[in-house]
């Protein structure tokens, strides 16, 4: 079939042609926005899930919902090597600029921009890990007003962020709307930044201020937040983003194809779900490759079987292999032991239904005939690189679906 008409989009953060299976999350956010618009109290929202389940896509879609309601918005992606001050300043600058044309008092906007500039230019005494702040973290905003003094410029990130977000919310209230800040890869925030963000959300919630934070991160994000502030369990609304059920996965494949006047045989859909496991990224990857290999409509199970090796080869290089290459030899050894121990039933028949379970770190140490403490550096480095996470104390699991299966197919 014509590859130019291929509707599927297996890209990082790229919206698929049909956002199937996420209606509940979109409805919940609509309610949140409407409640805040009516002055009702609401909690900020946290999306959690493995890589490849569509958290970033959903985050972008939620932002579009806020923009459609004329909210100010800004989105950032956290990087472990960068202070929160610079990206959060840029996001709020963007949000307030969206609101400024509707504000009746330019002086109020200028006053906030002065506070924002002071916050952005105020470096803490030391950067992450005690190092001096890097020059690239000292954002120079394109703000013509002078920096304010005595507000959001103490150098204490918790004090400053509370004051900054409170002032931003006040600007939104003046306009009769709200501000939404979207934060991706939120688990990579430094501990003091997590604490500051929780404190700011707590203050905004108590004030009933029209500013919310929508975060997205790996499955252990709730534990990261709870470690920073004990009340975070009640502070945020958590939504776990998981793989698609069968109906949603079929919709993600069939509806875009129908718009191109292409159909699937039922057995082809059966096999595609078996291969993809319902993970949105895999659904798009297998769908795209199958389309390119199928000679005509309807697409058959035979077409899927012919296309599957190419899809798996592409995933092995781009989705799995690129992550594996970031690991050191010691870290690879650790992950290979995890992969061996993580099979639920002890067997791998080559289908996507073979799930990788969380593995006790003590078992990994026994398998490698090492002391648990000697493996801590490898484990901590893998967590920092976002390859594994610790959902429960004493256990680790892969952040990427079926990464264990990939490792079990690779030569040692």
Automatic annotation (TrEMBL):
A single MF term (Gene Ontology): electron transfer activity
Pfam families given in the database record: AAA_16
Signal peptide positions on this chain: none
Keyword Heme belongs to the record: yes
Region feature (Disordered): 1-20
Keyword terms, alphabetized: Heme, Iron, Metal-binding
InterPro entries referenced in this protein's UniProt entry, alphabetically: AAA_16, Cyt_c-like_dom, P-loop_NTPase
Domain Cytochrome c: 173-324
Keyword Isomerase: no
Protein name: Cytochrome c domain-containing protein
Record organism: Salinispora tropica (strain ATCC BAA-916 / DSM 44818 / JCM 13857 / NBRC 105044 / CNB-440)
Species classification: Bacteria, Bacillati, Actinomycetota, Actinomycetes, Micromonosporales
């Amino acid at each position: 079939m014509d590859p130019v008409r291929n509707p599927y989009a297996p890209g990082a953060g790229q919206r698929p042609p049909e956002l199937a299976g996420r209606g509940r999350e979109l409805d919940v956010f609509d309610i949140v926005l409407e409640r805040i618009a009516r002055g009702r109290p609401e909690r900020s929202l946290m999306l959690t899930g493995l890589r490849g389940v569509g958290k970033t896509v959903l985050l972008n879609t939620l932002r579009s919902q806020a923009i459609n309601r004329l909210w100010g918005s800004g989105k950032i992606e956290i990087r472990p090597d960068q202070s929160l001050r610079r990206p959060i300043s840029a996001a709020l600058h963007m949000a307030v600029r969206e609101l400024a044309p509707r504000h009746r008092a330019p002086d109020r906007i200028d006053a906030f921009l002065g506070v924002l500039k002071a916050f952005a230019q105020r470096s803490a005494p030391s950067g992450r890990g005690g190092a001096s702040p890097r020059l690239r973290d000292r954002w120079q905003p394109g703000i013509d007003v002078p920096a304010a003094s005595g507000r959001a410029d103490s150098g204490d990130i918790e004090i400053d962020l509370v004051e900054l977000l409170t002032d931003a919310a006040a600007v939104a209230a003046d306009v009769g709307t709200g501000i939404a800040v979207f934060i991706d890869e939120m688990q990579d925030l430094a501990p003091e930044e997590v604490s500051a963000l929780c404190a700011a959300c707590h203050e905004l919630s108590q004030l009933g201020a029209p500013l919310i934070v929508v975060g997205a991160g790996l499955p252990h994000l709730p534990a990261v937040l709870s470690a920073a502030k004990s009340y975070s369990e009640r502070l945020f609304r958590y939504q776990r983003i998981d793989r698609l059920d069968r109906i949603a996965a079929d919709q993600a494949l069939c509806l875009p194809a129908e718009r191109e006047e292409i159909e699937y045989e039922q057995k082809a859909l059966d096999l595609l779900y078996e291969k993809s496991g319902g993970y949105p990224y895999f659904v798009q990857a297998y769908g795209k490759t199958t389309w390119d290999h199928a000679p005509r409509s309807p697409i058959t199970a035979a077409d899927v079987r012919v296309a599957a090796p190419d899809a798996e080869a592409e995933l092995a290089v781009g989705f799995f292999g690129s992550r594996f290459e970031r690991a050191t030899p010691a870290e690879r050894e650790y992950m290979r032991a995890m992969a061996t121990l993580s099979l639920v039933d002890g067997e791998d028949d080559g289908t996507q239904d073979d799930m990788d379970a969380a593995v006790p770190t003590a078992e990994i140490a026994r398998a490698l005939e090492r002391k648990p403490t000697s493996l801590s550096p490898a484990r901590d480095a893998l967590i920092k690189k976002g390859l594994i996470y610790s959902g429960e104390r004493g256990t680790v699991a892969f952040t990427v679906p079926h990464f264990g299966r990939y490792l079990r197919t690779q030569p040692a």
